[in-house]
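Example 3.
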Amino acid sequence: MLAFIIRRVLQSALVLLIVGLTAFSMFRFVGDPVDNMLGQERTAQDIERLREQLGLDQSFPVQYYKFLSEAAQGNFGVSYRQGRPVAEILLERAPATLELAAVSGLLAIALGIAFGVFTAIRRNGFLANFIMSASLIGVSLPTFLIGILLIYVFSVELGWLPSFGRGETVQIGFWSTGLLTASGLKALILPSITLGLYQMTLIMRLVRSEMLEVLRQDYIRFARARGLRDRAINFRHALKNTMVPVITVIGLQVGAIIAFAIITETVFQWPGVGLLFINAVQFVDIPVMAAYLMLISVMFVGINLIVDILYFFIDPRLRVDRAGGH
Amino acid sequence: MKLTMATMLGALLISTAAPISAETLRWARSGDALTLDPHAQNEGPTHTIRHQMYEPLIIRDISGAFEPALATDWAPKAGDPTVWVFNLRQGVKFHDGADFTSEDVVFSFERAKQPNSDMKELIGSITEVRAVGEYSVEIVTDGPNPILPSNLTNLFMMDKGWTEANNTVNVQDFEGGEITFATTNVNGTGPYVLSNREPDVKTVMTRNEAYWGRDQFPLEVSEIVYTPIQNAATRVAAMLSGEIDFLQDMPVQDLERVNAVDGLVVKQAPQNRVIFFGMNQGAADIEGDNVDGANPLADVRVRKAMSMAINRDAIRQVVMRGQSAPAGMIAPPFVNGWTAEMDAESSTDIEGAKALMAEAGYGDGFSIRLDCPNDRYVNDEGICQAAVGMLGQIGVKVNLDAKPKAQHFPLITDGKTDFYMLGWGVPTYDSEYVFNFLVHSRESDIGTWNGTGFADADLDGMIKSLASNTDLDARNADIAKIWRVVQDEQLYIPIHHQVLNWGMSEKVGIEVDAEDQPKVKYFTMSK
């Protein structure tokens, strides 16, 4: 198992390097940061001086090497737009995104599995069919549209929930949380539904189809023949065996939730890292873009690694296989 | 369990209608201030936030006219046109209680002239600022500078003692990522005091009860809560749902929607920004066209014909939904040198334009690339699309290339475009500013935005002499002469003046100011 993990870590490092290279080679197409940083009164000398100061006059491999060596020491540079260290800004923005991702992730997993099991067991029921049809909305509507629709209904028309922001937050150490105030919780509702809806429907459809598959298996039939209670069959035997693919997908989706929070955060003016990234793209804030993309890829790679390791514990066959020397 | 969840949710929903004091102004726009250091960035939204807490010697009121702020009066020194004398307001205190005196003015100017300062270009002509008594200063320039006061309306005054005590004498090195005390703390003389700020999230300011103008201005807003909201639809939704009292950067397509809601109003005023196309007439041959060995744009008849092909009323009605004023010159109406006659000089005449094209030898037309931003001006890409169709009528086949502003503007400053859109605002309210950047031939520190390749040594000399001409009548005559050349040469194709829209709740009383710089001390709030 150790060899397996080491191999995966090395592979992951390679993936990170390639992501960084790709990201860096694309920055030059985003535009010229210097133009945004200096006002319209700037002179040619100002532009040259700033370019030199930022190291933008150097070649692309040199810039990439500098970024990597600095990043390896935990220094992501200084935001062109805010004039503050990128690491500090990311740390300040991370709690908002993580809380939003956690709430929508939990929502998606809990409701997704519950609905998935329900629609699998009551395959021909009216309610199950209704849920299946309704879930098409979650899969097919783009996130920003769902967000705008929710804002329109619950903020503009009904006036129940706030249309933007995080509400009141409480500072605990470096962590700012919106989970402890009423306005913070209220502000979470619409964004977390928007962000989690797609994942919820995805998980639900996956659980349902896996579950249907498993329920057709011989051992389930034998279990029924033995007279086991439905509950034990459905949840102890069937659900447990549907979980391997489901966990893979959930793992990847956790990454997706954080990464794709960009759109939800923009729609709801949620002060997280996704909004920060969008600002950075518009302003050509290269240090922020680079740090964000690297962090996201570290996260995806890390999640994949964890998911791989989790397989070992959930599926005993994998352990036997590996021990067998494959 | 189910019941408790439901009750909790119910309780949550009911408590949404939190009581909010009628005197709190909840204000939103698309972006946030970049820093609070008064001299570190010369940028609109950043100045707007500073204006609530810091003050310059002179400000512009809602109509754009000078209004005394920390200076009570100012005039060139008798007998010496290179010196301006400013008399300061007495009895003014900074937020921490320190007195405002000439020492602070001298200090602030010196600070604004530091290399890291972003304001240094605006006051580049100042060689010395000296105190002559506790409430009077003399500003010395390197030559007579008749329009110096126009450059001081965003130059904020800091307290020397506070700045020194907090080790923030040097302007924040913004590009170097420096954070200083002044980046996050404010000690100004202004009508509002900073109480809380999270960059890009929220800035809260409370009324300065000791403000010198407490009885002079309405100052009815006791607390300002400023929130940047980037997404245009969310911004409007926040206004519609009553979470915002005052909104800048209103999307044109939502004006009617907001206006139709009870309790909300949208107010308009012409903005200090004109939109136009530039054409590279200087090159012998241009790249983006299909004519070999010649530059069609070098012929003034072609430039005139292209201007005549643009139907500005159609753009106003269709693209801008009425939110623009067709322009005939590239200066906004507030600017010294603007005339109604010149601003009416562009007319649409397709037949005439075709005749001019034929006369110039381009009766069959030519093709050219138009570079256009898509995230800088109101409906910028839409305007360009409309222009493509209009120019097509006289045989000019335009290939539109619309890009984000970060990619568009370097094309102009690096001379990589032959036909481009640009917008221009004039913070000094004087034509010299337009000439310096857009008409003077391109050199390293002047004519930087002149992408037309136009160069006329005589005109350059005239433009340079404007800076030190103290005879205002003669100066204005020169300005008129220069404009005549710009118009006759059809240096640019003016399109329109932008219109500014502010959305507000009915209880907020304020008129739109042309610079898009709301100063909350002028706001009234009915309860």
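The CA atoms of residues 282 and 454 of chain B lie 6 Å apart. The first helix of chain B runs from residue 2 to 14.
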